[in-house]
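Hey all, sorry for the wall of text incoming. These are the six entities for the joint prediction.
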Amino acid sequence: MLYSIVINSAPHSLHGGTSYNALQFARALLRNNHRIHRLFFYGEGVYNLNAQAITPQGEFDLAAAWQHFIDDNSIDGVVCIAAAARRGILDDGEAKRHGKAAATLLGASELSGLGQLIEATAVSDRVITFG
Amino acid sequence: MLYSIVINSAPHSLHGGTSYNALQFARALLRNNHRIHRLFFYGEGVYNLNAQAITPQGEFDLAAAWQHFIDDNSIDGVVCIAAAARRGILDDGEAKRHGKAAATLLGASELSGLGQLIEATAVSDRVITFG
Amino acid sequence: MIQCDLLFIFRHSPYGSSLGREGLEAALAAGAFEQNMAILFLDEGVWQLLDNQAAEHIARKNHQKMAKALPLFGIDKLYCSADHLHQRALEAEALAMTCQPLDNSQIKQLMANAKNILSF
Amino acid sequence: MIQCDLLFIFRHSPYGSSLGREGLEAALAAGAFEQNMAILFLDEGVWQLLDNQAAEHIARKNHQKMAKALPLFGIDKLYCSADHLHQRALEAEALAMTCQPLDNSQIKQLMANAKNILSF
Amino acid sequence: MTLHILSQPPSHNAFQSGISHVSEGDVVLLINDGVYGLNQALSGTWPSVARQAVFALEQDSLARGITAEPSALIDYDAFVALTSRHNPIQSWY
Amino acid sequence: MTLHILSQPPSHNAFQSGISHVSEGDVVLLINDGVYGLNQALSGTWPSVARQAVFALEQDSLARGITAEPSALIDYDAFVALTSRHNPIQSWY
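and here's what came out:
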């Protein structure tokens, strides 16, 4: 089946983050021969792809794990551009355009609009949200 | 009276952010001739001082307001170094030490340890948390 | 029958978290792409519909005004939980916009008939 | 009498949010600075005390082990809500560490006597 | 005498836990989404000890469209005054 | 038939709202802090329609020290299987 996953929660959130659950679920999808149409990082979920985050030695690096998962499996990883800008997650173009010091978006994914979320719901057999 | 304020919530959080309340309260303290010993940004609160965040035109820029408040009133603004590192809020030294692209901490405040929180509770007449 | 392909469920208050606004922005995007969609307001989400919001007092965009744009995007299937209105002493007539209260079994039917749900 | 200068109130679960861990780290720091302090576990916070946590299954640091370091930092005034244990079908004896259950009026007394409260 | 600050709505366990731990002489201040509990408080569904002294932040109430008798609504200056008269301050969130 | 995913603990309104909107034939999956509700579910304090088919993610349960009869605990492969058999998927958070 064709799946899309919406990730709406941050790695270190007050609210109760399910972003590790989302990663494990995405891995299990491929292991069970399903396909992933898109990962859509929205709201606080954009922090999952923060290139600046530093994981203490000996702890699990969720940002790196997302990047490897997206790269190794050629997944379409999309980060909502408006949600990301508010939270300071920028690619090269956005950082230059707004005069900010550096790109902070991990390389594997790209910034785009909410149309990518709506398209994903229209073409996928299943849409699952992790909030 | 001497106050310290703990800010534990982010500007754009899932949980229900009181960081705007914290800023307004801090301003009211000075207006009413109280003194602020320290602002301590902890947990998700470190995002309040994210230099990379972009506020859409016409909307209130909370990060800039914190910076001006801290600068204009020579407030001791401390950001927990461990909580900030996890969330990618780094000063020049931390960014270089970890090989990250850029400093992302707004200039007015400084990274330090939890001892600064404990000292603040010991010497202040009042400690108030915004979560 | 109460039916849609894409169901938005809004469970959070307009200003207490980022979910209120970001959910609404996602719904407006779906409207722009002409999806067969509906919005269901549950729990604290029903506060999004309250009239006389004056968000300038907290330096925020007025959620009520954004929500009123929904019909302009062709989004007219707006539902809320009658129970959750009642628990908050709210009347459907006092809301800022037309929104049909559903009972528990109608809500279950709406969810069961949806192809996909986006929850905020 | 149940009394302390600095009272930590932990109301959140160990892994569901960042508050569990970051609260504990703040408490350990206070212990290192030899404050006259106590910790009160309320609501979902009582789950922090549960035995047999195996956080390696979710790639996290074991909260129970971190909590067990509290006495090593001289932090031995550990309290929890008897009501909140009971609501979760937990017995004080089944907890991973010694923690005195307080009733509602004892909790109110503890709060009233504190000089400052840090809440996580 | 403790100042209890409630910033979550009434359906949240932080709000419920807060009003169950109010002592004689304490004050309750509703801020942020806590103001959704104001009319409930005034109409008497809370424990009586929690209802002795309840205030809501005016700006947060107006923003959300919540109205109430003016005496229950306070501004930030009055918020500061409450914190100077009460200690400790417990935030339920 | 809907798959309801509950990731908040029982004291959270997301959890309570979730179990009050379960229909005949639906499945409930507890993940993250939702697993704290497992024994409550099995012991029968939920509405009966919500108790027909309740599972908890094994890894999240073990991490938190929550034990239950093995048949109620499932791994991520079984989680995927549930999502392929049920639609829509509603996350209560």
